[in-house]
# Entry
Amino acid sequence: MNTKPKILIVDDKLNNIIVIEEVLTDLNVEIVRAQTGAEAIEKTKNEEFALILMDIHMPGLDGFKTVEIIRRDEKNILLPIIYITATYNENYYREKGIKTGAVDFITKPIIPDLFIGKVTLFVNVYRQRKALEEEIKKRKEAEEDMKKARDQAREAAHAKQLFLSTMSHEIRTPLNAIINTAKLLKEDPRPDQIEDMEILEFSAENLLHLINDILDFSKIDAGKIEFEAIEFELRKLMNGIQQSFEYQVVKKNIELEFKVSQNIPAVLIGDSARLSQIMINLIGNAVKFTDQGKILVEASAISSEGNFIDLSIRVTDTGIGIDEDKLLVIFDSFTQASSSTTRKYGGTGLGLAITKKLIELQGGKLEVKSKPGEGSIFSFILPVIRSEKDQLEEDMLMQISFQSLAGLNVLVVEDNLVNQKIVCKFLMKWKVNVDVAENGLIAVEKVAKQMYDLVLMDLHMPEMNGYDATRLIRQMEGGRYKDLPIIALTASAFIEDREKIYTFGMSGYIIKPFNPSELYWKIAPFIKK
# Structure
C-alpha cells in the first residue's frame, strides 16, 4: 500500500485539532481536518479514512448526529470512530456511542501515550485490511488472467483441432483415390506398367504415413490420444508388416527376418494398431538407413504375472548407425541425427518422437544402442494381456470368399465423384448391388423407399452431412431402420470424430484412405448378422 492512511479529526476548535496533530506526528499518517459536522460528512463521501477522531460537542450537528449520518453510507458502516470529549457521563455516552457505532471514547485532556496506542491499533488494522484487499485484488486479477489465458488456449486448441480435422479430410480424400486407383491398376497391368504402379503406390503410402505422423504428434501434444484393448494375433500382425516391407527390401537387396518366440501366446490383448505403428516406424527407419546386410526383428515374452505379459521387441539393423552424442537427441520432435540425414534420407524427424511417446503412454520403455558404421538396435518392452483364446473368430470369417457378398444391396453415400467410383468398383468386384447417393439428403430419401443391407456413409457432404442423415434414418418408423448397418467413411483420424460417429447411431467406421481388404472385412461382420 503506497498511500498513507488518512485520519479525519473533527473538532470545531482549530487549536484542539493542532494539538492532536502534534501528538500523532510520528505515526506516518495523513491528517485531514474538519471543523463542522457537515464538513466531516462531505469529506467521508469523497475520501477513505482509516479512523475518525470525533469531537462530540460542536455547534450545529453534534458528534453523535454527524456519526449517525456518516454511518448511512454503506462504505462507512465499519469505519472506526473514536469520540473525544471533555465532559464524560459514562452511562449516557456509552448508550449514545453504542447506538451510533463508536469503537472507543477518549477524554480531554488527552494522555499522549494512551492516545497514540489506541490510534496506532486502528491504523495498523486498516493497513492490514488494505494489504489483504490488495492481495485479494491481485489474486482475482491473476485468476482472471488465467481464465482468459485458459479460454484463449482452449480456443486455440479448438481452432487447431478444426484445422487439422479439415486438413485431414481434404488430404486423405484425394489420397484415397490415388492409393486405391493404384491398387485397381495393379490387378491387371501391362508388364511395363508394374514398376510405375509400385512407385505410385509407394509414394502415396509415404505421403499418408507423413500425414499420420503429423496428426499423431498433434494428438499426443494435446493429450488426446487413447489406446484400445482388443484381441490380436502377434504372429499374423508381424507377418503383415513383413509383407508390407517386401517391395522396399527387395529393391535395396537387403534381408528382413522376423523371429517370434514360442513363449508368446497365440492371442494377445492390447492396441494392435498402435503396436503395428510402433513397429512400422522402427522397421521403416531400419530399412531406410540400411543399404546392405540384414534387419532382424525379434519378439519374445520376457516376464509374465497372471494374464499380464511384458512383450519385448527388438529391431537390429546393419545400417549407418548413430553417434553416441546423438542417441538422446533423435527422440526429440523434428530432430534427426544430422542435417545431412534429412537431406539424404528425408523424413520429418517425428517418427521416433511419436514412437517413444506411444510406448511410454502404454507403460513401456524404448531403448537404443548404436555404433556409427555398424548399425543400431532399437528395443522396447510393452505390457499386454494374455487372451484365453487360441484363435480369433475373425479368422473363420476370413476364410469366406469375396464372392459371398454377391446379391447384397449397398448404398454408397459419397459426394466426391472419384472416391464414389473407387468404392463402387471394389464393391462391384465382389458382386455387390451398388446404389449411389451424392449427399445425405438423397440418402435419406433412398433409404425410405428402398431396402438396403448396408449403407456406406461419408460424413462431410453438401446439403446434408452424414451425421444428420444417420440421425434421420434412425428416427424412421420400423425396426429395420434402427438395425440397418451404417458404416461411416471418414477421412478424420481424430478420436472425437470417431466418438461422434457412434453417438449419432452409426455401426462402425472406415478411415480413408482404406485398404480394399479392410473395406471388405468391415462390411462382412454386419452382413453376417
About this structure: The longest strand covers residues 294-305. The chain is about 50% helix and 20% strand. The chain has four domains: 6-110, 156-217, 234-390, 397-528. The two ends are 76 Å apart (CA to CA).
